[in-house]
Amino acid sequence: MILLAPLLVSSLLAGHPRAPAGGVPRAGQAPTQALVRFVNLCPDVASLRATVNGTEVAKDLGFEAASHGERVPAGNAKIEFWSGEKEILSTEMTLSAGRPHGIALLGSAASPKADAFKATWEKDRAHLLVLNASPDVGAAQLFVDGRAAGTGALAFGAREEAVETAGKHLLEMKAGNRTVVSKEETLLSDRFYGLLLAGLSSGSPKIDLAVIRFEKSKS
After folding, report:
1. Is the link from the previous residue into 73 a cis peptide, with omega within 30 of 0?
2. Nearest to residue 68, comparing CAs of 46, 100, 95?
3. pLDDT of 204-213, one tens digit each?
4. pTM of the entire predicted model
5. If we measure between CA atoms, which residue out of 73, 55, 77, 34 comes closest to residue 219?
6. CA distances, 126 to each of 15, 146, 182 (Å)
7. By the 8 A CB rule, do 87 and 153 touch?
8. Are 179 and 137 in contact (CB under 8 A)?
9. Distance CA 45, CA 73 (A)
């Protein structure tokens, strides 16, 4: 497994979240923080940084790289993406307290799109969120050990959720009868995974399936 590789991410394990200002809530206190991780899925953005309500929480993210987990105040948040000193995209999102969030920038620098997904859990199962972030591969569907997962093929920017048993699995993204990318991955129970199809089928960077694992957040 490669952790936070700048060009090729075969698997990204959740980084140790940094403690928020004011410390970690004590036992019995309701959580007031959300855990966020950012992912750069724009092939033409060489270095991405992100801010939440004006505070930098991710920087120097190459294509397919993901940030470590950062705790930020829950609630309405202004999310901004930057390449150098140029703002690429500004959007608003609601961040839920005590929940891990993945926030991906996809598309291109000229036509960016942000996609956010919250981690949810199903006991004794691996929870999957599949996102097609490749602008030119066409509609693609996830297959697990040769069987179709989900409800059908996903167009660019579309996503859906699925659950899977724990263990080693062959993950494939197929466009029609064509296998776009495949890899083996060990899925753990009671974990949330983002399966992100990224890259370009007609050029560089090449197509890859980035697998991002989220740990449960206690704050």
Report:
1. no
2. 100
3. 888 899 888 8
4. 0.65
5. 34
6. 19, 18, 18
7. no
8. no
9. 27
